[in-house]
Amino acid sequence: MAGANSPTIARERACQTRGVSGRLQRDRDEEGRARNARPRDGLGRPLPYGAAGVERAPEGVERTPEATVTEAQELLDDGKPFHAHEVFEDAWKSGPDAERGLWRGLAQLAVGLTHAARGNFTGAASLLTRGAESIEPFTSEAPHGIDIAGLCEWATTLASGMPARTEPPDASTIAPRLRP
């Protein structure tokens, strides 16, 4: 692990600004909200400033449910479950109250997949289980054509296999199908 005086940390700090107090200031978006501007890899891990990362899904975008599911599926298929979680999180925050549990649960499934691909098998099993429990009440409705029963089965099976894993899987090879 890099120490506080390592060249990597020094370069990262050089890319940040200092305020009147002399303390490092947080990265901010156009609206002044704190947002880490460091590039990220496909699993959402921060990379050093100046490194080539993957394009991040924009936050705070209001999409139709159709667009949400389509974009999230593309990200899952590309092995970017962290970014799919951001898309689901936007729907969770901007969608109707009656569907918040659905979108939150789908975001949890994507984060569970992210943890699996990062090698955090305990966290993966926990979030996959929690996500399946969150979306299970929507099984009879199959809102927006989402295969709730299939996702619950996928998540339960994947979660139960986490303790036996020794190597992180490629997220794209175990990504679920959101629709049948």
Model description:
The protein has 180 residues and is an all-alpha fold. The chain has a domain at 65-174: Hyaluronidase domain-like (Orthogonal Bundle). 48% of the residues lie in helices and 0% in strands. The protein has seven helices and no strands. It has helices at 7-14, 65-77, 81-94, 100-118, 121-135, 148-161, 171-174. The protein is globular, with a radius of gyration of 18 Å. Residues 4-15 have low confidence and may be disordered.
Radius of gyration, in angstroms, nearest whole number = 18 Å
Count of extended strands: 0
State which percent range the strand residues make up. Answer: under 5%
CATH architecture of one domain: Orthogonal Bundle
**Mean pLDDT rating:** 87
Which structural class matches the secondary elements? mainly alpha
- SSE order, as H and E? HHHHHHH
Helix tally equals: 7
- Find the CATH topology of one domain: Hyaluronidase domain-like
Indicate the CATH class of one domain: Mainly Alpha
Helix content: 40-55%
